[in-house]
Amino acid sequence: MNDMNIVTPRESKSSADTELQTLARKHLLMHFTHKSAYEDAPLAVISRGEGAWLWDEKGNKYMDALAGLFCVQIGYSHGEEIGEAVKRQMCDLPYYTNWGYAHEPAIRLAAKVAELAPEGMDRVFFTSSGSESNESAIKLVRQYHQAKGEPTRTKFIGRRSAYHGVSYGALSVNGMTNFRKIFEPLVPGARHVSNTKRYRRPENETEQQFTRFLLEELDSLIIQEGPDTVAGVFMEPMQSAGGSLTPPAGYFEGVREICDRHGVLLVADEVICAFGRLGEWFASTRFNFKPDVITFAKGIASGHVPLGGMITSDKVFNTVLSGPQQMYLHGLTYGGHPAACAAALANLEIMERLQVNENVRSNEAYFKARLSELLDHPYVGDLRGAGYHYSLEMVSSKEKRSWTGPTKAIDFVQKKLAPALVAAGVLCRSAVDHEGTPLIQISPPLILDRKEIDWLVDQLKVVLNEQLRSDLFS
Ligand SMILES: Cc1ncc(COP(=O)(O)O)c(C=O)c1O
Questions:
Q1: I need a labelling partner for 46 at 20 to 30 A (CA). Which of 24, 61, 120, 308 fits?
Q2: How far is CA 48 from the centre of its chain?
Q3: According to the 3-state scheme, what is the secondary structure of 264-306?
């Protein structure tokens, strides 16, 4: 992508609503979208993409610095190739099920995922989303313990502020209070431990002490609950919600040991982390631990079609089969849809051809170093992340590491930060995190090159230094 000039929404060709905007405000129920979008707030109607770039119907150009929703690993230039694979599959067999039957695309994709997964993770189940994948993992783990003669193991432990999806099981393991509390009572038995955010830990605490604190908390919670009541622990290798929370050294080795000691299964939610986001096919490899179940979605098909799933070992799977039901008692009409599997196979081929994992690994240090220049800004308190997934935490006082206003964090994000980012042509995530501070989250397509990284960081500087600085608190 040579042309780095963008037309920003401020230069929009027309401020009147188009037909599509009018219809969207009237008929489209948008996901997690504030009511102002149905009224008079700007509503971009995205109409095409190329590389890491998107255009709305008015011709405004943006960098997609969030890869859609953390999923468009290969960017927007391979729709035709993936579409051809889907078309071929549609002509041969547009639909069949994995309930009691198999078909070639699901078989080949399962074999491919097993080849890319950590050693010993050989059994693949397909779904159509991350929430369904986590739901499936919850049921697999429950059935595993029942088959082993331990039916009292029903509880799950997640981490504070973690996001695992919207369906009731996944939502229960979520640690996001705002998302949980209005839907309570949730599935009983979900508990939460601290996440790995270090920014507000005591200043003289070493990384080793932090790891020990986290592990002791997990261990003591399992003991307090009664190990024979705990089924599984759910963790992302790097937790996205809360702001790109990487694990401290030794953390996952310790979590693995605690789970083994108490007979608890460890589920790695890799819905965001897998398929190159951290430069590896699966991020548990990067952080040196072997889960019992890995859930995935998003990147496996670069978001081009809905597809998710979970991977487990023959040990877990065979235990489930040996139980009284003699089957994994779970299934989905669209799980392993032939067209979706064909799209994912084509996507993985493209990812290998473009060497996206290598691209992420070779640019990671450069990306992080460029983003760390933003720490010079008086209101950027912390930069966290790895691979192609970073978060900048904003504070009004660096000394206190907090946001104290006078503008409320939510108003700052909704009325200033988010519009300023869009106006600068940067589509990313801005939100208030669980500790009440604004976050900017960057997680671009994995094809982003250094020139585009430079463009992104420069635009963020424009937003922070020029557009926001003068009226940050007004
Ligand atoms: C870590 C994680 N798990 C699960 C999900 C749920 O995935 P989906 O929206 O496909 O249901 C998400 C979605 O962003 C996620 O980030």
A1: 308
A2: 23
A3: CEEEEECCCCCCCCCCCCCHHHHCCCCCCEEEECHHHHCCCCC
How far is the CA of 190 from the CAs of 170, 308, 326, in angstroms? 10, 23, 27
What is the position in ligand 1's atom list of the atom closest to the CA of 167? 11
Query: Which of 126, 136, 267, 272 to probe ligand 1 with, by most ligand atoms within 8 A of CB?
Result: 272
Digit-coded pLDDT (tens) for 346-368: 999 999 999 999 999 999 999 99
Contacts of 396 (CB under 8 A, 6+ apart): 379, 402, 403, 404, 405, 472, 473
Distance CA 180, CA 182 (A): 6
Backbone angles phi, psi at 47, to 5 degrees: -120, -25
Cis amide linkage into residue 324, ω under 30° from 0: no
Write the pLDDT tens digit of every residue in 367-401. Answer: 999 999 999 999 999 999 999 999 999 999 999 99
Q: 152 C-alpha to center of ligand 1: Å?
A: 28
Answer whether residue 220 shows pLDDT above 60.
yes
Mutate-to-test residue for ligand 1 from 179, 298, 429, highest number of ligand atoms within 8 A of CB:
298
- Nearest atom of ligand 1 to the alpha carbon of 170: 4
> Which atom from ligand 1 is nearest to the alpha carbon of 241?
16
Contact 279, 363 (CB under 8 A): no
* Ligand 1 surroundings by CB, under 6 angstroms: 69, 129-131, 134, 163-165, 236, 240, 269, 271-272, 297
CA of 380 to the centre of ligand 1 (A): 27
Structure tokens at 357: 């994992």
Can you list the domains of the chain with their CATH numbers? 9-77+355-471 (3.90.1150.10), 80-354 (3.40.640.10)
Half-sphere exposure of residue 192: CA atoms within 13 angstroms, side-chain side: 17
Q: Which of ligand 1's atoms lies nearest the C-alpha of 134? A: 4
In this structure, what token pair is assigned to residue 137?
Answer: 């993992």
Strands 293-296, 265-269: pairing is parallel
